[in-house]
Structures are given as structure tokens and as C-alpha cells.
TrEMBL record:
InterPro entries reported for this sequence: FA_desaturase_dom (IPR005804)
Limits of the Fatty acid desaturase domain: 71-334
Keyword terms, alphabetized: Membrane, Transmembrane, Transmembrane helix
Lineage of source species: Bacteria, Pseudomonadati, Pseudomonadota, Gammaproteobacteria, Pseudomonadales
Protein name: Fatty acid desaturase
Superkingdom assignment: Bacteria
């Protein structure tokens, strides 16, 4: 019986591998066709740099218009959230060395600018090793990147809090870890991953929350809240940074993590099987989230088959790629993933949290 089971598993593995190779080949060929049809796509590094400059300049201009009083805070926040979603895609492509591969100065300069525009995230150089491992072991217990986005956690208030505030998520994991050595190790990792920009980013956010919460509570109980001139001057800076940079990134990160953690599977995934690692999630009602993560749920699965194509080309290949992936058995809009805590098996029922 064991020999028969091993034979069946081997045959299934070969069959899946053939499907994966077929999907990869056909999407790659379609990408080559688009590059020939639209010659501008051959200038990949220039296009990536152009999107990067457009996004950074857009953030600066929008921030200036807000500071001068020409646009309200909510307009600035939404526009910059959209622009930082472009920058996230650029950073992801840079991690795969899709721009300026042979020009390290330009490549690393773009990496650094991506980090400045998204300071609440670890440096892209640190993320590179985690992301490469994610591609190799996607959906398995060693897939740290998926775990960071909350994939595999049962849905509830705790997971929503983790999606909204990754720093507190990591801090609480460290505090409640068993043993002092484990606590110290996790706290040290959190500090290392957030040094230096993340500590400034989250520190500014918590000062903003604390100050305005203090004022709000004072107004509720009828107590007068007095602030010194220095405090008011500091809060003017903090408020501006929150509107221009922090709040847009919080919106972008929540939307990205919400989409990413549900279109990736975590658990019951065969090792290095791209057919099981992800699904395509593209219903109309997800568009408010897709808007701020550049249609991630619809196109990221393509990336698990063909890594070499930049984010804008994945958008162009999506209609064809979806057809090819569906033929191979990739799932589409499997909303049962919410009940199964993102496990691939349809029979799994969530029973516990992974913390």
C-alpha cells in the first residue's frame, strides 16, 4: 500500500510540475509578444525609474499643496496612499533585480528611495532574503514573509489589529513569547528590522495617537488641556508627517496585507508547488482594497509563475495569464480561505491561532 501511495504521489507531483512549466512557458511567451508589440516595454529600467520619480514627485507636490492649504488632509492621504502603492511595486521588482541589474549605484539608490517613502517597512535589502525564501517555501511553516502579513491566522479582532499595526503585533509577540531569552531575541529582531526609519515612523505615529487621545479624553471629562508652545510646534510637524507620509502608508499596508494574506495559502501546500501557493482574487467588491495595492489580488499569482516580468507587465498579461492558470487548476475567488485561516485544504476548519 505504501509503495502504491508513493507512486501516486510521484505521478501527481510530475503532473503538477508539467502544468507549472506549461503555465510559466505560455505566460513568458505572451510577455515576449507584448514586448515586441510595444517596443517601449523593452526599456524596463527606464520605465521603473520613471514610475519611481513620478510617485516621489507626486507625494512631494501633494504634501506641499496640503501644507499650503490648497487641499484637505483626506485628499492628501488618499493620493499619497495610491502613490506609495506604486512605490511598493517598484521595490518588489527591485528585490528581484528587475531594474538596473548591472548598475548597482542606480539600483541601490532606487532601493533607498523606496525605503524612505515607506519607512514603516524593514529595509528592502533585509527583505530580499525573506522574499526569496517566500518564493521557495511559500505557504509552509518556514514562510516568514507570509506569517508577517498575518496569513494563517484565524480571522477575528486580533488579526485585524495585526493588519493595522505591524509594530504592535511584533512587540506583543515578543512580550508573550515563552522564556526571557525568546522575548529578548524577538525584541532585538523587531528593533533591528525597524532601525532607523521604522522607529521614527512608529514613534511619530504613537505620539500623534497619544496626544490626540489625551485631548479627546480631556474634552469628554470637561478638563482643559493646555499645551506649551514647544509642544504645539512639535505637534504641527507630527500632524503634517502623519498626513503626508504615515497615514497613506498605513492605508496602503492594511490593504496590501489584507489582500496578500488571503490570496496566498498557508498550510497544506505541497513544497514549491506554484499551483497551490496562491489564488486569484478579483471580485468587484475588493476594489477599494485593490486600489491601494495596485490590483495585487488579481495579478500577484502571475508573479509566482513568472518572476521576470515587472508589475505593469503583469497587469497587461493578466487576461491571458488568468485563462492559462485556470486551465492548470489555479483557484479563483476561493472565499472559503477566510474560514480556513488560509489553509489550502478545503476540509480544514480553523481551530487555533498561531499568535
Amino acid at each position: 500500500m505504501n509503495a502504491l501511495e508513493n507512486t501516486v504521489e510521484t505521478d501527481q507531483s510530475i503532473t503538477d510540475q508539467e502544468k507549472i512549466e506549461n503555465v510559466t512557458r505560455r505566460i513568458t511567451e505572451h510577455g515576449n509578444y507584448l514586448r515586441k508589440r510595444y517596443p517601449i516595454l523593452q526599456y524596463q529600467s527606464a520605465l521603473g525609474a520613471g514610475v519611481m520619480v513620478f510617485s516621489l514627485v507626486g507625494m512631494v507636490v501633494t504634501g506641499g499643496l496640503y501644507l499650503k492649504g490648497f487641499i484637505p488632509a483626506w485628499t492628501c492621504i488618499l493620493i499619497n496612499a495610491l502613490l506609495t502603492s506604486f512605490i511598493h511595486e517598484i521595490e518588489h521588482d527591485l528585490i528581484h533585480r528587475l531594474y538596473f541589474r548591472k548598475q548597482p549605484l542606480a539600483h541601490n539608490a532606487m532601493m533607498f528611495m523606496c525605503w524612505l517613502a515607506r519607512p514603516g517597512m524593514p529595509s528592502p535589502w533585509l527583505r530580499r532574503s525573506l522574499h526569496f525564501h517566500h518564493h521557495k517555501e511559500s505557504g509552509t511553516d518556514s514562510d516568514v514573509e507570509a506569517w508577517i502579513t498575518t496569513s494563517g491566522n484565524p480571522w477575528g479582532v486580533l488579526r485585524l489589529l495585526k493588519l493595522m499595526d505591524g509594530f504592535i503585533f511584533g512587540f506583543l509577540n515578543a512580550i508573550f513569547a515563552p522564556g526571557w531569552r525568546q522575548k529578548a531575541r524577538l525584541l532585538g529582531k523587531i528593533i533591528r528590522l525597524n532601525t532607523p526609519f521604522g522607529l521614527l515612523y512608529w514613534g511619530c505615529w504613537y505620539v500623534f495617537l497619544g496626544y490626540h487621545l489625551y485631548g479627546w479624553l480631556g474634552s469628554i471629562i470637561g478638563a482643559e488641556v493646555h499645551s506649551s508652545a514647544a509642544t504645539l510646534a512639535l505637534m504641527d510637524v507630527v500632524n503634517s508627517v502623519v498626513v503626508i507620509l504615515i497615514a497613506p502608508n498605513l492605508i496602503r499596508q492594511f490593504c496590501l496585507f489584507f489582500i496578500s494574506s488571503n490570496m496566498h495559502y498557508y498550510g497544506d501546500v505541497a513544497p514549491r508547488n506554484a499551483l497551490q501557493q496562491t489564488q486569484v482574487m478579483n471580485p468587484w467588491w475588493l476594489w477599494p482594497f485593490q486600489l491601494f495595492c495596485f490590483n495585487f489580488g488579481s495579478t500577484h499569482s502571475i508573479h509566482h509563475f513568472v518572476v521576470r516580468d515587472p508589475f505593469y507587465l503583469r497587469q497587461m498579461t493578466a487576461p491571458y495569464a488568468h485563462k492559462v492558470m485556470a486551465e492548470a487548476g489555479v483557484r479563483f475567488n476561493d472565499f472559503g480561505t477566510y474560514k480556513r485561516a488560509n489553509r489550502f485544504s478545503m476540509n480544514h476548519v480553523q481551530t487555533r491561532s498561531r499568535g
